[in-house]
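About this split. The held-out portion is used to measure sequence recovery: a designer receives only the structure tokens and must propose an amino acid at every position. Recovery is the fraction of positions where the proposal matches the reference. Here is one held-out target exactly as it appears in the evaluation file.
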């Protein structure tokens, strides 16, 4: 729910945030490492960033006073420099298009009370850093959800509100019951402290119940972005057909202008983007046929490089010799499979536990079509070294039922919630095709095309198959590995993957 601050609190906060009464604000005058800590709190805290900052100030965990005195002393001297910088940027960045200069200016923004649906549209901008409220460690507030302005005036408003509140209240009322059922089903193991066991049971319950959260649920998102990427992001947000996204774009622009006034001054909706989007929707109707029937397959490899081993060997050797690429590929094609394997082995075998593989793996590019619950999509989308093509979030691909739902006897609530959402979605979609997605819970599936280079695939599979991950995206990472093993077994041999099933999750 919106945070409100007393007059004293506002005075304390004002030097560090660009406003004290709106949910989107930029940060300033804070040590960079404190900014990183404040954003990290989003992962585990129900509180706003400003509330956590107040605690830091009051507990005097950071000596902000001295920093502020220093900034105030210098602000007079810097006023002239700031004005000159503005003139420079107007001339070079805006006037002559020397945009890369804008990358040296960085903005930290807190985006609070944004819907989960909106976070995914914001994070579709790859050149930025994000930290989001965790669905595993934070129990979401059932009163905090978004209602699109277009629905406020619509006959669909009642069904929208009824469905979203029913989903959130089911999530909330089942929480205690689920924690108790998890504890009964998986008793504490020897060697685990009571506190760690309780935390693990709570996390597991949140992992199970997150499937019920509607996409309208409001969350918090920390964003760090450079001036050039920010200008592009604002333009994309302002051009988006959803009102919530346009509003976020406008608020981000207003707040960021207080930090980098010149660099994003001209960020505006893009007619090219908006008109093309409209035309492409019509063309897709005309050319791409109907939605395919529901598929059960989660991960499908749709494109893989030809002659992958030869290409990789050529890419590996290229930087260490002086042959042209054409000479090298001719030479590599004459090597025996054993010789090629030797090169690949020497290149990859010495990796320490925290070493990413070296760059040559980027020469191999794979595309995967992935059909997963929105909760898992929410996590997988965060991998930025990729090209992602998202289809709209609809009810057309059905929903998943996590195995724990049956195991803990939650099927009746779960299925009823999913059906209620499907029905509401169908009714709202007829009048408001874009806004209808907000009522869908995270259990509903979304189809996405990911194109990854092999280096990022190594990273993704290792991180997302690890035991501590959510079962839903762990299975995607395992499938990606199996697909690679099927087509390029030699390369898969060097990928680090955890193929174990952990019925007890993290307990
Ligand atoms: C168990 C678990 C829990 C998590 N919990 C949360 C959570 O509560 N909240 C949350 O927001 N996220 C959470 N995440 C997501 C996580 O923090 C990452 O954002 C996500 O996995 C993307 O991976 P990545 O950052 O390694 O980068 P990718 O985007 O996959 O990029 C690959 C690599 O490129 C480099 N790279 C990419 N972009 C940059 C950049 N801008 N600057 C420097 N290096 C870069 C890094 O080396 C990175 O590892 C969780 C992940 C796991 C596995």
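Reference sequence for scoring:
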């Amino acid at each position: 729910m919106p945070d409100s601050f007393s007059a004293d609190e506002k005075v304390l906060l004002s030097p560090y945030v660009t406003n004290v009464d709106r949910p989107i604000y930029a940060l300033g005058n804070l040590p960079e490492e404190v900014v990183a800590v404040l954003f990290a709190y989003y992962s585990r805290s129900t509180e706003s960033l400003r509330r956590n900052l107040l605690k830091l100030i009051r507990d005097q965990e950071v000596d902000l006073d001295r920093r502020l005195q220093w900034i105030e002393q210098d602000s007079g001297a810097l006023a002239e420099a700031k004005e000159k910088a503005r003139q420079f940027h107007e001339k070079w960045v805006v006037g002559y298009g020397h945009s890369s200069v804008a990358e040296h200016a960085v903005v930290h923004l807190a985006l609070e009370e944004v819907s989960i649906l909106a976070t995914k549209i914001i994070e579709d901008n790859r050149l930025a850093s994000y930290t989001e409220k965790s669905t595993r460690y934070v129990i979401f507030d059932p009163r905090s959800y978004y209602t699109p302005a277009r629905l406020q005036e619509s006959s669909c408003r009642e069904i929208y509100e009824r469905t979203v509140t029913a989903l959130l209240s089911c999530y909330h009322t089942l929480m205690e019951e689920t924690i108790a059922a998890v504890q009964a089903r998986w008793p504490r193991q020897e060697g685990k402290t009571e506190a760690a066991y309780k935390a693990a049971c709570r996390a597991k319950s949140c992992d199970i119940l997150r499937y019920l959260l509607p996409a309208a649920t409001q969350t918090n998102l920390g964003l760090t972005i450079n001036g050039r990427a920010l200008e592009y992001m604002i333009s994309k947000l302002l051009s988006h057909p959803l009102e919530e996204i346009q509003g976020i774009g406008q608020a981000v622009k207003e707040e960021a202008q207080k930090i980098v006034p010149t660099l994003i001054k001209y960020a505006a909706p893009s007619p090219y983007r908006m008109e093309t989007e409209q035309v492409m929707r019509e063309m897709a109707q005309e050319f791409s046929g109907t939605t395919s029937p529901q598929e059960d397959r989660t991960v499908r490899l749709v494109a893989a490089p030809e002659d992958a081993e030869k290409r990789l060997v050529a890419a590996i050797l290229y930087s260490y010799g002086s042959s042209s690429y054409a000479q090298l590929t001719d030479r590599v094609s004459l090597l025996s499979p054993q010789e090629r394997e030797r090169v690949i082995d020497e290149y990859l075998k010495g990796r320490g536990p925290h070493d990413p593989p070296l760059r040559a793996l980027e020469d191999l590019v794979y595309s995967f079509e992935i059909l997963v619950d929105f909760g898992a999509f929410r996590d997988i989308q965060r991998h930025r070294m990729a090209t992602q093509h998202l289809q709209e979030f609809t009810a057309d691909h059905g929903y998943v039922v996590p195995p724990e739902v049956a195991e803990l006897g939650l099927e009746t609530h779960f299925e009823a919630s999913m059906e209620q959402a499907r029905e509401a979605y169908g009714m709202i979609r007829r009048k408001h095709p874009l806004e209808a997605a907000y009522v869908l819970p995270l259990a509903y599936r979304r189809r996405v095309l990911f194109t990854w280079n092999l280096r990022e695939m190594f990273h993704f599979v290792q991180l997302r198959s690890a035991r501590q991950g959510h079962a839903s995206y762990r299975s995607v990472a395992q499938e990606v590995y199996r697909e690679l093993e099927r087509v390029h077994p030699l390369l898969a041999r060097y990928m680090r993957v955890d193929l174990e099933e952990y019925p007890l999750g993290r307990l």
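Annotator remark: The mean pLDDT is 93.
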